[in-house]
Write a structure and sequence with these properties.
By secondary structure, the chain is α+β, with helices and mostly antiparallel strands. It has two domains: 120 residues, Arc Repressor Mutant, subunit A, CATH 1.10.10.10; 159 residues, no CATH class. The chain is built from 16 helices and 14 strands. A hairpin with a 7-residue loop joins strand 8 and strand 9. Helix 3 packs across helix 5 and helix 7 crosses helix 10. The protein is globular, with a radius of gyration of 22 Å.
Length: 386
């Protein structure tokens, strides 16, 4: 019997995120998604690093037209990312969540799309636990800009009132300010559907929040725009999406890096994979902003406006007073803008988690942790059997 590339693909996905439920059904759907010949090219791409077009072409030995068509198919199905680096086209394998995102975003209403929606929803709901052996979160929260600057900045037009004290401006960095990050990384911007809310909508559980709120930048935008998943937009439209998202109580999440970001998600508490996993105590997907909220109890009138908007359940009224659970607070600032008394304000966290300098550095850290975690798990199992 020949090698089963679909099982190999599932094994690669399990290396990334832990055991997958329903492998047999997953394999059947993968067979409907991509051909065995196309998977053969997928496995010529290194597992944990990108490859230049010229080198991949040499490995594949395919006619130029055939190679281009196969790479386009793999990218359009979300199995690979294709983007430019240093003037050359490069390709890298997509992880299972990235692949599922692109499948859910497809416009065709097919059984395959609904399978991927059900699979993604099983992660959202906690039915399936992503057991990746990593510690470093891929995303981090950005605070609402007005809560750390006191100014609506590039989102000027409609001002969100803030009655609270504003943090010391010497502590505010460009990595805290959403408009600065967008303008800095605006070489190429695309907007795509929020795959979390799209998933819930496909399953009849939509929350009614806007769908076109996921912003992608530069190399991520190149892949999604080229293959029709995202629409190219300019800086002002991107800033308008962020402003509207803030007004609707959505939480800004960006790649956990200091340098060029690849994506900016505007997340709702009911659908977001980042927020729902955080509430379940999983800390390697999302991380807090560099700020936390403090409460001026003498100003609080227990109106509970902050409780209603908190996306993580960090706020609660009990025994005639308001409490803040620092372990749940992501430092998004929604409670600051919601409080009519100005009882909440943002302060820098005393212990600051390190933020990798670039996307490449972040991915290297996560890959290293994944490999070490797998090896540790294998050795632990070996000793247990001994």
């Amino acid at each position: 019997m020949g090698k089963n590339l679909y099982q190999d693909l599932l094994s690669f996905y399990e290396f990334i995120m832990g055991p997958l439920p329903g492998r047999d059904e997953f394999e059947d759907v993968l067979r409907d998604t991509v051909s065995e010949e196309e998977l053969g090219l997928f496995f010529l791409i290194p597992a944990l690093s990108p490859i230049r077009h010229a080198r991949l072409a040499k490995r594949a030995g395919l006619p130029a037209g055939k190679l281009a068509a196969t790479l386009k198919r793999l990218a359009s199905e979300g199995l690979i990312m294709a983007y430019s680096r240093d003037g050359a086209k490069v390709y890298e394998r997509g992880n299972p969540v990235f692949m599922t995102e692109q499948q859910v975003r497809k416009p065709e209403d097919t059984p395959r799309r609904h399978f991927y929606a059900r699979f993604f929803n099983s992660i959202l709901s906690g039915e399936v636990t992503v057991d990746a052996p990593t510690r470093t979160p891929y995303y981090r929260v950005l605070p609402l800009e007005v809560t750390v600057t006191g100014q609506p900045g590039e989102t000027a037009g409609r001002v969100i009132p803030v009655n609270a004290d504003i943090p010391d401006q010497q502590g505010v960095l460009p990595v805290d300010i959403v408009s600065e990050m967008i303008r800095r990384d605006a070489r190429l911007i695309g907007v795509a559907d929020c795959y979390c809310r799209r998933t819930k909508e496909l399953l009849g559980e939509g929350c009614g929040k806007p769908l076109r709120t996921c912003l992608v930048f530069n190399r991520g935008a190149e892949t999604l725009i080229e293959h029709g998943t995202a629409r190219r937009i300019g800086v002002e439209e991107a800033l308008e999406i962020v402003r509207t998202s803030a007004e609707l109580g959505l939480v800004h999440n960006v790649d956990n890096v200091q340098g060029e970001i690849g994506s900016l998600c505007n997340c709702c508490s009911c659908c977001s994979i980042l927020l729902t996993t955080w509430r379940r105590g999983i800390t390697n997907a999302d991380s807090p902003s560099r700020y936390r909220v403090i409460l001026a109890a003498e100003r609080c009138e227990l109106c509970q406006a902050c409780v209603e908007v908190c996306p993580t359940g960090a706020r609660a009224a009990a025994d005639g007073r308001m409490t803040v659970d620092d372990s749940l607070c992501l430092g998004c600032g929604l409670c600051v803008t919601a409080c009519p008394q100005g009882a909440n304000s943002m302060v820098l966290r005393r212990m600051q988690a390190s933020i990798p300098p670039t996307l490449d550095a972040l991915e290297r850290v996560i890959r290293r942790e994944a490999v070490l975690g797998v090896v540790k798990g294998w050795l632990t199992g070996l000793f247990r059997r001994a």
